[in-house]
Amino acid sequence: MPPSAAQTGRSGGVQSIAVRVRPGAGRTRVGGRYDGPHGPALIVAVGAPAVDGKATEAVRRALADALGLRPGAVELKLGATSRDKVFTVAGDVGERLAALRDGST
User: Fold this and answer.
1) Sheet containing 74-78: which strands, arranged edge to edge?
2) Which residues pair with 18 in a beta bridge?
3) What contacts 97, CB < 8 A, 6 or more positions away?
4) Which whole-number Å values give the CA distances from 97 to 33, 40, 88, in the listed order?
5) Interval 30-86: pLDDT, tens
6) Stated pTM of the model
7) Is 89 a member of any domain?
8) Considering the domain boundaries, does residue 22 fall inside one?
9) In a domain, 20, yes or no
């Protein structure tokens, strides 16, 4: 059975990226793998609290920065109130995502 778009990160010109959020961290960090409900997820730790969407916004910006995209190119698709989220990004970030999530080069 082929992997889903969330697992591969590919869906035409727009890619879906599964993310596991760690709010309230001491510093922002993007990297590592978490096997979550949406497939292999990229771990994003942010200092913002999980209140009123603050952590989600901080994750969106951190993800954009880590992938070399402008923040407007990253949108939340699923999981507004969950630690397990799916973001969509415009552009081909597959290699950079693999390096961040899986430690591959």
Assistant:
1) 29-36, 39-45, 14-22, 84-90, 74-78
2) 86
3) 9, 15, 17, 42, 67
4) 11, 11, 12
5) 999 999 999 999 999 999 999 999 999 999 999 999 999 999 999 999 999 999 999
6) 0.85
7) yes
8) no
9) no
